[in-house]
Amino acid sequence: MSWLVTGGAGYIGSHVVRAFAAKGIDTVVVDDLSSGRRGFVSDGIPFVQGSILDGRVLESAFERYGIRGVVHLAGYKYAGVSVQRPLHTYQQNVTGTATLLAAMEAKGVSNIVFSSSAAVYGTPDVDLVTEATAKHPESPYGESKLIGEWLLADQARATELSHTSLRYFNVVGSGTPEVFDPSPHNLFPLVFDALLDGRTPRINGDDYATPDGTCVRDYIHVADLAEAHVVAAQRLEAGEPVEPVYNLGSGEGVSVGEIMKAVAEVTGIAFDPEVAPRRAGDPARIVASGELAARDLDWRMRHSLTDMVRSAWEARRAAS
Predict the structure, then answer these.
(1) Which residues have CB under 8 Å from 59's CB, separation 6+?
(2) Based on the domain organization, do 8 and 147 belong to the same domain?
(3) Is 153 exposed, middle or buried (0-12, 13-18, 19+ CB in 10 A)?
(4) What integer pLDDT is reported at residue 319 of this predicted model?
(5) Which residues is 69 bridged to in the sheet?
């Protein structure tokens, strides 16, 4: 009996698979490799190349591997680009989730951990986001994640589905040199690529109402995130109570300026980032509380900012 990890060949998904393996829990990966990488899946982990939009692929995997629960990470994750590709985003994230839930119901699989996003909050008007903070997603991506949460809640009311959703902001670092963040849109890869190309990294705005003038955000280490997914799965399987949603937040956040200083120190490459104009819609500060997740999911920030930067840099250089 195994847990199915959709999107398990991705940057986050492959770390989740490794976290399950560290606990001695078998997993099976389903991934269409649209953004994931086959090489991110460890040897010996069963791999099914296919889309969550194909119910036959999912049902076949459930039958073949005796799936007892699902960690659902597959989806289209680029919030900014989703504005230009709304239909594609809804198809991948909403239709895909509905197809997965239908396959689970058909095969009697009743446990699911859903990888949601703090994008469901949009631009909150509070200093510290909690699970009760109003949801105002500002992109098709954020909207699709909120709809995914609704789908789980509705299916749970209609069937015996047990579920929880994990919301988080910026995931960085690496738990193993074999896996790095290849996203063309995330801050760390953009900064590292610039340095490796001999260019000066660029940040957007340094005149915000924050201590150093740059935006403050939640940055969490991918290995800490992966561990929370495993604990959530274990609680579901044990029938222990869980909240419908958890924020995996730092409670404090770090600024983009602090990240730039840490990058310079870790890489040994001295630079002063180029300051570009603010991006429209970027709030000065978005930081979430992780209190509920700390209570139930053993959630905590096990890695410092230096740890995050160093592990990410080492993994990125190993991939060069």
Answers:
(1) 103, 106, 107
(2) yes
(3) middle
(4) 87
(5) 3
Determine the structural domain holding residue 130 and report its residue range: 2-170+219-247
Query: Residues near 58 by Cβ (< 8 Å), separated by ≥ 6?
Result: 30, 50, 52, 99, 100, 103
* CA pair distance 194, 188, nearest whole angstrom: 10
Strand 254-255 to strand 216-217: parallel, antiparallel, or no bridges (unpaired)?
antiparallel
| CB-based contact 9:29 (threshold 8 Å) | yes
Look at residue 4 and give its three-state secondary structure. Answer: strand
- Note whether 194 and 116 are same-domain residues: no
282 has a pLDDT exceeding 90: no
| CA–CA dist 133, 217 (Å, integer) | 16
For residue 157, which amino acid is it? R
List, as one string, the DSSP characters of 108-169: T--EEEEE--GGGG-S-SSSSB-TTSPP---SHHHHHHHHHHHHHHHHHHHS--EEEEEE-S
CATH number of domain containing 202: 3.90.25.10
Residue pLDDT, tens place only, 186-245: 999 999 999 999 999 999 999 999 999 999 999 999 999 999 999 999 999 999 999 999
Entry field: residues in the chain: 320
Answer yes or no: pTM beyond 0.85: yes
| Residue 208 burial by Cβ neighbours in a 10 Å radius (0-12, 13-18, 19+) | buried
Tokens found for residue 69: 């629960």
Q: How far apart are CA 174 and CA 94, in angstroms?
A: 28
Catalytic residues: 141
Structural domains counted in the chain: 2
Q: What are phi and psi of 210, to 5 degrees?
A: -130, 165
At 279, the pLDDT band (50, 70, 90 cuts) reads: confident
Residue 223 sits in the same domain as residue 270? no
Buried b (16+ CB within 10 A) or exposed e, 81-118: bbeeeeeebbebbbebbbbbbebbeebebbbbbbbbbb
